Amino acid sequence: MQRGILRTWKDDRGFGFIESSVGKRRIFLHITAIRESSYRPQVGDVIYFHLERDEQGRLRASNAWFETDRPKPPIQSPVVSKKAPKYQSSFSPAPALLSILPMWGAFDFMFRTRNAFPALAYIALGILTFLLYREDKNRAVSKAWRIPEAQLHLSELFGGWIGALVAQQVFRHKTRKTSYQLVFCSIVALHSIFWFDWLFLGRNLAKSFM
């Protein structure tokens, strides 16, 4: 058993690095190597761990626990619950209200230009983004490797933001992280402004892209 201090931690990706008290080495720590605990790692935490090497011979921590936790009997490997996570969803009219203008604009675009791409993109990417949110929520609950936020935002930008908005309500996911919500709200505003211009302001934005 070794002792160290958590020097870096990326909570959204579930990993960080420990500075060992022996030799001041940087040791990789993945969230799955931490014994079952409700405590979320913080930079500066004192951590106890076993040292092992991965298939490439790199040092990594295993069977780790934090000084803030009560010590638990040693276990051979982390146990990940196989039970399906329970979601506490809440009904909100926001998805329906915010999607009215873009969907109206997308279908108006289809009827005027005979191009169904925007409407189909909203539907297809909305479903895809909803499924990505569900998968990311499952990974968060099971402390597995997370889906990068950039990938979620890219899917939202190309039309999946309606599905993301529904998923946020259903899974209660990504609703409290301010930095994430700022980017997400900017994407929603961008789509809404474009379609408002298309429907009511002479399609100036659309003309600049065509």
UniProtKB/TrEMBL annotation:
One of its GO terms (biological process) is regulation of mRNA stability. Residues 3-67 form the Cold-shock domain. It comes from the Bacteria. Its main location: cytoplasm. GO terms for cellular component: cytoplasm. It is found in: Cytoplasm. Keywords: DNA-binding, Membrane, Phosphoprotein, Transmembrane, Transmembrane helix. InterPro entries: Ca-reg_mRNA-binding_domain, CSD, CSD_CS, CSP_DNA-bd, DUF1294, NA-bd_OB-fold. The chain crosses the membrane at residues 91-110, 116-133, 182-201. GO terms for molecular function: DNA binding; mRNA 3'-UTR binding. This is Cold-shock DNA-binding domain protein. It comes from Leptolyngbya boryana NIES-2135.
